[in-house]
Amino acid sequence: xxxxxxxxxxxxxxxxxxxxxxxxxxxxxxxxxxxxxxxxxxxxxxxxxxxxxxxxxxxxxxxxxxxxxxxxxxxxxxxxxxxxxxxxxxxxxxxxxxxxxxxxxxxxxxxxxxxxxxxxxxxxxxxxxxxxxxxxxxxxxxxxxxxxxxxxxxxxxxxxxxxxxxxxxxxxxxxxxxxxxxx
Length: 183
Known about the structure:
With 183 residues, the chain is α+β, with helices and mostly antiparallel strands. It is 21% helix and 32% strand. The strands form three sheets. Strands 1-2-3-10-5-8 form a six-stranded antiparallel β-sheet, covered by helices on one side. The protein has a three-stranded antiparallel β-sheet with strand order 7-6-9, with no helix packed on it. Residues 176-183 have low confidence and may be disordered.
């Protein structure tokens, strides 16, 4: 599980964990200018809350577009389709809460490992087998709105097992065991 003070770089975005327990995952996110919008998605059982601390944040929610400025907040209830990004000209700093956190922190850690160009797991953007493995593992936390759900279910039931066989994974590395020292 993520720990307070942990810094995760996911592509161009940086997350600093403030709190991670059974009740909430709280991070401070820095979105750089021109940060690309993620795919539209929703969280089946989680509520997200965004408070803009600096800059502006663009949000598409259920087909409507909003711009949040510093001091403004938005809560996204479970099941609500959305995308969030920074289309501004300066960094956006955002307090982002996810409740309950479930395995969201693990998901962010895996994305950080996959998008680290110097890391051994670099695969940004994730290829189809890796995406299927992630979709299968984090289905309770996040679902894409496209492709349609039956196509996603097919991916997670057919492509994800192939991905696992190919060595793709869905859990963050928790340190590598050290090799035994030579006697």
